[in-house]
Amino acid sequence: MCFLRKSRIIGFSGIVTGIALGFIGYWLLDNFDIVTLPADVYGSAKLPLDLAMSDFISIIVGAVIIVLVSSYYPASKATNIDVIDVLRNE
Q1: Smallest Cα–Cα separation from 47: which of 29, 24, 26, 27?
Q2: Less crowded by CB within 10 Å, the N or C end of the chain?
Q3: pLDDT tens digits for range 46-80
Q4: For residue 13, what is the DSSP state?
């Protein structure tokens, strides 16, 4: 279970870091003209940003599911290893 706990800690810290970096990037793009568009083609020279709460929640739920599945599979494989046989063959 230690392997499962550590992989979940790494995964969830990655989710939290990704959320923080995403909001920093969103704030930078919203407040500064980093990306400029030709106004005669698009009708606006500023990049339109729209963060819907449903999109945000679905991204978080998807990331949590990926972390849970990807941490469970290696942990289940690690529990099937006989430690005594591995140490005996070393």
Answers
A1: 29
A2: C
A3: 778 888 999 999 999 999 999 999 988 888 887 78
A4: H
